[in-house]
Amino acid sequence: MQGKVRGAMEKDVFTTPEDKDLLSAEKLKGIRITKWAGTEIFCYPVLDSTNTKAKQLAEEGYPAGTLVVAEKQDAGRGRRGRNWESVEGAGIFMTLLLKPEINPNNASMLTLVAALAVSGAITKCTGRPAGIKWPNDIVMNGKKVCGILTEMSAQVDYINHVVVGIGINVHNEGFPEEISHMATSLYLETGKHYERAVLIEEVLEQFEKYYEVFLETEDLTGLVKEYNSHLVNMRQHVRVLDPKEPFEGRAMGITPRGELIVDTWESRRLVSAGEVSVRGTYGYV
């Protein structure tokens, strides 16, 4: 089975996505080699949101590792409530259910763990670099190819569940004019179509690897160096869109807590992911 998936990366590039790339739970189960991610797989033609469905399954008692996949979302969400539009069959819309026995205060770092996983999976499948725009946008050639949304249900000192939603633009041949300057797809970057089931499996494999490192310390101590090596903002001038007081500086990587280190002309500041957006001084990156 190991050789089957590894060897599939190159041969599962094809000219057109029609018919060839339909997703199903059976197809995903057939190539699965992960230890726990994908223990249960649900695949739907359309959902309002894979995160919403995964949360419902968590409440029904489904285990950690449960995966929800949809061909299309009609009410997907991004960070801070933004809508995430999807085109049927063009992308990957997936959510992985987690039930980590960690302090709830540490759960937000799982978004950065997921970013590392997606970056690694895309690079492995396409042979092209996929960087990270802090905290969790995956970028190719300065444009966004993937967004990640992590949501948690918790008590004061106990996590009920965490859902990690991932949306990857795969077959898209174009985007609406208002976002075309900042959005891209694997097809637009490489001129090739990739089998989505293979990419989903690779994301799960990469996530298991990085998640294991995260759980050792419940922070990003073991992942800081690798995360920074993929950070497209690294040592670049950025504008931090803090609603209280926007400021500019040079991004210097992340802390073990996942905060972005920004050196301004007067001080070093730490930026938390849930509070602000970061942009390049003259654009998206």
Summarize the structure.
With 285 residues, the chain is an alpha+beta fold. It has helices at 2-11, 25-30, 50-59, 110-126, 186-190, 196-217, 224-230; strands spanning 13-14, 41-44, 67-70, 76-77, 83-84, 91-98, 131-133, 137-140, 143-154, 159-169, 193-194, 237-240, 247-254, 260-263, 268-271, 278-280. A 7-stranded mixed sheet has the order 2-3-6-10-9-8-7, with helices on both faces. The protein has a 5-stranded antiparallel sheet with strand order 15-14-13-12-16. A two-stranded antiparallel sheet has the order 1-11.
Give a structural overview:
It is a single chain. This protein has 285 residues and is an alpha+beta fold. The chain folds into 2 domains: 2-228, Bira Bifunctional Protein, Domain 2 (BirA Bifunctional Protein, domain 2); 233-280, SH3 type barrels (Roll). The chain has 7 helices and 16 strands. It has a 7-stranded mixed β-sheet with strand order 2-3-6-10-9-8-7, with helices on both faces. It has a 5-stranded antiparallel β-sheet with strand order 15-14-13-12-16. Strands 1-11 form a two-stranded antiparallel sheet. The chain is globular and about 55 Å long. The termini are far apart. Mean pLDDT is 89; it is low at 1-11.
